[in-house]
Amino acid sequence: MKKLKQIIILFVIAGCLGAFFYFDLGQYQSLEYIKEQQANFSEFYKENTLFAISLYMAVYIVSTGLSLPGAAFLTLLGGALFGLLVGTIVVSFASTIGATLAFLLSRLLLRDYVQNKLGSYLKPFNDGIKKDGGFYLFTLRLIPAVPFFVINLVMGLTPIKAVTFYGVSQLGMLAGTVVFVNAGTQLAQLESLSGIVSPEIIFSFILLGIFPFLARKFLSFYKGRRVMSKFKKPKSFAYNMVVIGAGSAGLVTSYIGAATKGKVALIEKHKMGGDCLNTGCVPSKALIRSAKFMADVKKCQKLGFKSAHIEFDFADVMERVQRVIRTVEPHDSIERYTSLGVECYVGEAKIISPYEVMVNGDTLTTRNIVVATGARPSIPPIEGIENVEYLTSDTIWNIREQPKNLLVLGGGPIGSELAQAFSRLGSNVTQVERNERLVSKEDPEISQMVLESFQDDGINVLVGYTPKKFFKRNGRNFLECENNGNGVEIEFDTLLIALGRTANTMGFGLQELGVKLTAQKTIKVDEYMKTNFPNIYACGDVVGPYQFTHIAAHQAWYCAVNSMLSPFCRFKVDYSTVPWSTFTDPEVARSGINEIEAKEQGIPYEVTTYKIDDLDRAITDEAAHGIVKVLTVPGRDKIIGVTIAGLHAGDIISEYVAAMKNGFGMNKILSTIHIYPTLAEANKFAAGNWKKNNVTKKALAWGERINRWRRTYA
Question: Rounded to two decimals, what is the model's pTM?
Answer without folding.
Answer: 0.77
